[in-house]
Amino acid sequence: MLITGAQAMVKALEAEDVRIIYGYPGAAICPFIDAIEDSSITYMLVRHEQSAGHAANGCARITGRPGVCFATSGPGATNLITALATAYMDSIPVIAITGQVRSDLIGRDVFQEADITGATEPFTKHSFLLKNAKDLPRVLKEAFFIASSGRPGPVLIDVPVDVQQSMIEFEYPKSVDIRGYKPNFKGHALQINRVAESVSKAKKPVICAGGGIFAAGACKELTAFAKKCFIPVVTTMMGIGALPTDHPLNFGMLGSFGVAAANRAIHEADLLIIVGGRVGDRAVAAPGQIAARTKVVHIDIDPAEIGKNMEAEIPIVGDAKQILHELAEISTPCDSSEWVDYLKNIKSSYHKPVELRPGFIEPRAFIDDLSARMKDNAVLVSDVGQSQIWCANHYKVCSGRFLTSGGMGTMGYSIPAAVGVATANPTLEVVAVCGDGAFQMSMMELATIMHYGVKLKIIIMRNDSLGMVREIQKSMYHARYVATTLKGNPDFIALAAAYGIAGAKINDNSQALEAIDKMLSHDGPYLLECAISPDEASM
Amino acid sequence: MKHTLSVLVENHPGVLSKVSGLFSRRSFNIDSLAVGITEDPSVSRITIVVDGDEYIIEQVEKQLNKLVDVIKVKALEPGEFISCELTLFKVHATSSNRSEIVQIAEIFRAKIIDVSRTTLTIEFADTTERTQSLEAMLNPYGVIELVRTGTIALEKGSRLIAPSKNPTNSI
User: Which residues on chain B are in Cβ contact (under 8 Å) with A304?
Assistant: First the structure.
């Protein structure tokens, strides 16, 4: 039976078990959205295409399957670029479907034409421009495979409007065979043995877990390995939650904005095992120094990351889940109890004294209170900047998640990503934390929240500044605060009320627990504004 | 140090742009680049000469392998491959020195492909080193214009670079 290209795209999405897609329409994507209406797939209309990309990102991270977003040609597609770059840097599987102008008009600068495959080339794992509707089933299947296998990442599919309208016979392929793409999953047995041997001899081993642990679904295997061999674990920002925060072997986030125990651990270790991390510059500022004095094991699915920033004595390319499982099986505990006690001491003795400022909330204590009240399996989505650091170092992950834009540090990520999480899994308690700057980058999505009844809780850490940049200016630019003061901020609670969203504001930590309880128990979306001093530092 | 890479890619539009985009994005230096279809019309071969140390070459290979349109990458071992570059030289030549230039061309076994009252155009296909030697000999006469194709290369003997069925696993 002949169907249109657009209908074929929808059938392919159904075959890939897609339940929900996020997007914004336009002329060039009309055939596709018309076809969605007749399918089992729910679409969510956002208020900016960038939000659709972030929502697909949040959806992907919580379901473990590619998140799907759609936009029209030209400006609709270009508005996705930041979201795709965000997903690319954090290796999140996102499929972006964009409409394109008629095939015979491509290259003639017609209305809303943009070379989106060219423009997104640095930010996608791969992209497709359809010339023939017959290719649609194969392309969709390949796109989902590429996005979700190996090191996950965004894939863009650009479909000219006439291709969406052509008729084809639909048959969804059973398998893919891409000769240029054959990811390796199995770690080399010899290398794994070498690691096990190194573990048995180590006195001061450390595991550094990155976002790849979640991509591989390897939290249990990581915990089992660390527990069996008694190895302390530190995480990158993307790895927060790989081990529950309160696990006795979890020594926190490393890096320029991390905690003392974690940084001392990697600098003084005799064996450093990096799993699912890419040795980003925020996590490890001086990789050469560490590689020079420590034995480094680097386990990653992407061979290009091994040796890119830090030389590894024992590199292993493969799936973290399989490799950690093997390691847990064959490794023996090492003599690290003195080392673990040493790190425990550092952890308990480094505490920034709580400095209360009258008329302001102390943010770290606030996040501690928030952690205490949120459910064990709740999800905290943090935006970027000072509030990201307060959340990263103080939010306690139990069986839920801590999500943020790590690699790209995209402001405006939290609210749409949280919408993605909350709509992909409506049983979860989801809280987004952002500054007043980041809030204003995606506040248009308050409409989306009301449109679909998303019970999202938003906390604005309001300091009427762009806090992180202001901090840089304080230390490096003689406190010349250029372009970091946010004047003209609206009354955020009144703004929320204008959308029909309840809210409250607090400016004293004694009000925190009650305000948090009220927010979490409210049956609907809620906005809680916390007054933060602009002089508050991230560390 | 210069390294020669032989890269098999899908013969699709935009693939060359992806490869050159990758190089520019990661600040890899391309000395020369030549591309053309192979014996299999669905596959093109790109021969790239890259300037860099061992770390750079390892990264270039690995990053190229990540591109879905790249089928196979081989860094050619020095001494194990035959390379060739085609160059056309337009040299200033008058009746007084034309025969000297022709002699030089003969010695190098280069071809004279065009002549005018004031110029001689020489075609030379050989290794980069020999091409540089010829250029050095022609420079004193005045090389008006010069065009190069860039190096192409194949491994010696019966070895060949073909798409593999196995997973990519480079350590």
Answer: 59, 62-63, 65-66
